[in-house]
Fold this sequence. Notes:
The complex is a heterodimer. Chain A is 37% helix and 17% strand. Chain A is α/β, with parallel strands linked by helices. In chain B, the strands form 2 sheets. In chain B, strands 1-2-6-5-4-3-7-8-9 form a 9-stranded mixed β-sheet, with helices on both faces. In chain B, helix 3 links the parallel strand 3 (47-51) and strand 4. At the A-B interface, helix 7, helix 14, helix 19 and helix 21 of A face helix 11 and helix 12 of B.
Amino acid sequence: xxxxxxxxxxxxxxxxxxxxxxxxxxxxxxxxxxxxxxxxxxxxxxxxxxxxxxxxxxxxxxxxxxxxxxxxxxxxxxxxxxxxxxxxxxxxxxxxxxxxxxxxxxxxxxxxxxxxxxxxxxxxxxxxxxxxxxxxxxxxxxxxxxxxxxxxxxxxxxxxxxxxxxxxxxxxxxxxxxxxxxxxxxxxxxxxxxxxxxxxxxxxxxxxxxxxxxxxxxxxxxxxxxxxxxxxxxxxxxxxxxxxxxxxxxxxxxxxxxxxxxxxxxxxxxxxxxxxxxxxxxxxxxxxxxxxxxxxxxxxxxxxxxxxxxxxxxxxxxxxxxxxxxxxxxxxxxxxxxxxxxxxxxxxxxxxxxxxxxxxxxxxxxxxxxxxxxxxxxxxxxxxxxxxxxxxxxxxxxxxxxxxxxxxxxxxxxxxxxxxxxxxxxxxxxxxxxxxxxxxxxxxxxxxxxxxxxxxxxxxxxxxxxxxxxxxxxxxxxxxxxxxxxxxxxxxxxxxxxxxxxxxxxxxxxx
Amino acid sequence: xxxxxxxxxxxxxxxxxxxxxxxxxxxxxxxxxxxxxxxxxxxxxxxxxxxxxxxxxxxxxxxxxxxxxxxxxxxxxxxxxxxxxxxxxxxxxxxxxxxxxxxxxxxxxxxxxxxxxxxxxxxxxxxxxxxxxxxxxxxxxxxxxxxxxxxxxxxxxxxxxxxxxxxxxxxxxxxxxxxxxxxxxxxxxxxxxxxxxxxxxxxxxxxxxxxxxxxxxxxxxxxxxxxxxxxxxxxxxxxxxxxxxxxxxxxxxxxxxxxxxxxxxxxxxxxxxxxxxxxxxxxxxxxxxxxx
Lengths: 511, 292
């Protein structure tokens, strides 16, 4: 007797339908075999399925059972085929038919219940594209799948319940699309008002958040670089629905969504340590897995102690910084992962860290300093729009009013301006394939950043005086555009441009 | 051949062209000097050694530029050690005004050290300056060559100007040699809290003359300044700019402090500062703004 149950396989972010063909032969010695390029996890599903069926009070058929996962030439991995295989066997034993246009996914526990399984969102998106109607997924993973419109998601608790449903003895209430409204602000470790002083750095953070600009902070240890970066999530605009789906897809593939979790609606803040490996940061492995750059998609990638990162890791970030995606090529597979993130880097000015420190003396030789600063290559610095020097703050010199953090602007107040500026950008780039000012290419700059004669003159003078490179010149215009957006001005004025010049490359100069 | 080529660029102590002042330092006189550039006797006539800390502050740099520019323009040769920081600032200011300067290297004559100052090295030669060393060929700079080099810097000069110096610095070693050879010592006063002013303050306490303007030094050389008082650009400033200038006149400040003291938002003050910088009123170095 042959039964066909449908499931999927995820190749990176691409989803392919998989036919799980279960054959129960009366001839031959009893046994259980899985074919169709299963990996270890799939192969072990034999034992899980057998135990789960037995625990559900059904006799495991003493027949020669063969499961084929077609197409047979694509490697299958993971535990998601437990459910389709078990459903196939059960339908033969209990004689029920499987509804049409249904997809199954889920890992079984020995007691017959279903566990949270990664990839539910991708399957749901695939189901919608390919015209499937019903999705049977573990209860814990159902929240992911309901983010997609036009499909019925059945949250399955255990095998008995599911069999009962197919035998029309029990009911499972399908869940339809739910618009996920998450009004919760992004969790930030600090509020901007807790950061005393650092007025310019805070302003730079606001601009960076508003325009999606990459930013580098250079300053001595203890000057507040990390605190500023960690306060950043609090002023980031929320993800819109498309972005939210994009991000959740990556997290779903990576298995980074916790049980019961649903769409990710806040911008992610990733801060890998500088000992992170190339594969960990960029993605890869024999089965290409998304790396930190992809997990930071539409969010923030914070690299503390930037110049401590190995050279190859830093250079590998050039493509995602430029293109917003990256291609991982392996002998058997090529996977494209989106990686459109905002880079926030922090670095010390010199090996000892105290160059330009108002109180402590730097003990580094000039040669060491030059060598240290050269560790961040020109091409990387070129892709960073905002450069700020962070000097340590001496709060003993503050007046009581200045020390009172309640009088300072809170993250929420700043966020309102950021959200406003983002909305302006979204409507501006409606017909272009970009979302923020930072992504503007030269053609966009020409179109959206009209400069008057005066401003061009100013910029020209500045580029001579500050020795700006051609790329810095363009970056300054982009930053000025964001400043103008924050100011709710269609025109870029002299003062916008002058402020943008404040964030030109400083200590770390691109050679 | 190589040796012969080097021979061309040596002046020995027996040579009549050997700098007279340097002969006066007794048995410490180098037996021979290797050099690059053109050896003209008149370059040694009026020499002033200008030395400063490797970790020159923005204040030190500003003072060096201001004093050296005027002194070098009056035809005095600036002697220094080609190290980064104070030395480099002195050489730089001299070549900028087209003056002559002598760089005494701590290494063999065929090495540029530090190598990233190569541009300055050639600018010195282009401006008819000299590169001098008592060490031949590719002798690498080591601890003791720096200190030995300093005696030549002091020995060549009638007077020495110490801009900024730590308590345990090469600049003080140069000053010590100068004292030993009976040369005049000028020191620039600085903030008593600054580590790189402690050396100069010590010199002043020990009797060095305080130098606050180029005239102090030029008087000693009996030369009058050829630079008419630097024309300050007429400041046509807004109220806000005026306030900033007032603050910066007192001491250099970073943006955040300015923004706090004046109660102007960081965005607004950044705009003004950029514009003032472009107009040439102020300048920025190591994170702080100061008046030009």
